[in-house]
Amino acid sequence: LSELALLGGEKALPELPRYNPIGPEEVEAAKRVVETGLLSGYLGVWDPGFYGGENVQKLEREWAQFFGVAHAVSVNSNTSGLMAALGAIGLEPGDEVIVSPWTMCASATSILVWNAIPVFADIEEETFNLDPESIEANITPHTRAIMVTDIIGHAADLDVIMDIARRHRLKVIEDAAQAPGALYTGGRYVGTVADIGVFSLNYHKHIHTGEGGICVTNDDTLAERMQLIRNHGEAVVEAKGVEDLTNMIGFNFRMTEIEAAIGIEQLKKLEDLVARKVDAADRLSRRLEPLPGLRTPVVKPDCTHVYYTYPLVYDASVTGVNRQRIVDALRAEGVPTGAGYLNLHLQPMFQKKQAYGRNGFPWSGGLYEGNVSYAKGICPVAERLHDSDFIGLGWCLFEGTGREVDAIAEAFEKIWCHLDDLQEADGGN
Ligand SMILES: Cc1ncc(COP(=O)(O)O)c(C=O)c1O
After folding, report:
1. What DSSP assignment string belongs to 343-369?
2. Atom of ligand 1 nearest to the CA of 211
């Protein structure tokens, strides 16, 4: 095989055109809304318009039906949805919420918004999701909830986590931003197993509306509370006769009619778009399986993976080449490659315990009675995967046609044929 692009050879891949799930149906739907001049249907008073316009309500009905849940509450982002969900469960300032270090920052910062405290538990090797044993080990008298992310497109061990939560009287919120359409055991959709699930419709995802999010729940009270938090709840609680005023400072988390109209069309395409990502991933896995030192994605029995990212676990002791060198070589070939993912507990906000103001609030200031640690070493699996073993390919960044996937496979094969060159260039480590 030809010389490595990293060492001056030709690239294995051309520039990959960006993944684009938006088609003429979405264009038409958006146009129809724009032509009405009514780009939002929300009213901030006690009125049917409190629940949004025609398209918002239609998207919610169809989303709830598709996912088989009682309620879908649309919002303007997954981040807003996580905030609404955490407010809805009645979190108190100083409560602890267990969360993964291996997730996007909003899963943890949405907890801080309610002056509650993120506690990071470790993840498991195979799906990179929260490890139930580590969750249990991190429960304290202050724990109030678990924020579980279905990271990268595969379900966390949800039944086991729900069981822990029930035993300890905790609420569970599922951050399903990266896993729309993924199945968990028993044919249940990811996002629908916990007390509340939250999806993202931002433009990096399988389906999108530019920005947006949807919360789902089977609990009538939680749905109502999320609707109130979404649209300045304080303005209507009196007229609506709401007596439980906890966390009823409302926000503006409203989705516009344009986004909702696009979302209705996108939802119709979800299964097909996901199937394409899965086919592309399976095609790549078949080619990568023979390469020593690489573990292709694990899919748990009775689950499906939707591959927001295509995850690989790399063992440098087998190849003799460190991960960064492999990632540099893949990038040089044109493969959209990431080294590691995230270790949120090590970010400056947590290391300095500084979120609001300069004095350590909400960790200090008298609300919090626990003693959470964010020291390096508290999440050894997440840290090792991030520091040395994990390689992720951005699977929602490009279409993933057969030809593109074959070219990616060729890039890997070329690099694996030239490991000697990389070892030398690496000084043999
Ligand atoms: C796991 C996870 N949580 C939350 C978010 C935030 O989503 P949004 O951009 O819709 O607020 C993302 C977005 O990338 C995500 O991947």
Report:
1. -GGGSHHHHTT-SBTTTTBTTSSSS--
2. 10
